[in-house]
Sequence to fold (150 residues):
Amino acid sequence: MDEFMNPFSDMLAFAGNTGDDTSNNTNENTPSAKKTLSDALSVESAHGTYNKPPKLMAIEEYNRWAKIFEEWLKAIAYPSWKSLKNGYNDGGQHGENLTQTEDIENFVAEQKCIALLHQSVRDDIISLIEYTNATDLWEKLRVKCVDLGT
Fold:
């Protein structure tokens, strides 16, 4: 019987064999479907996808993650990347007071960058960092992971 993995379940399902009994799936070196899926999801988390940013799972991985995250952000959300590099202070936490279209777009890019950083960093790494904008969060995250992590 051929084994396959339903990605939405932890249970394995089996497909019937083709009836010719010529295939023998008893090779002990063949990775299980569950292991293969686990490895694929791990790579997806490390490098991100179009819908999800790369994930920082350990402080020791910061330097590798920072390069990948910045490239991902530049490709997927360029205005947010500009906000990460330059910061955005107009409007602070009070975006409802903005009236100019450019200010609103910059504010949205800033908030999106902060949200993407929160999505991409494990909660216990980022939760205690206090920041004023995306640039400040990015720098304090670097200090926490590189300067204090070594």
Notes: DSSP finds six helices and two strands in the chain. The mean pLDDT is 77.
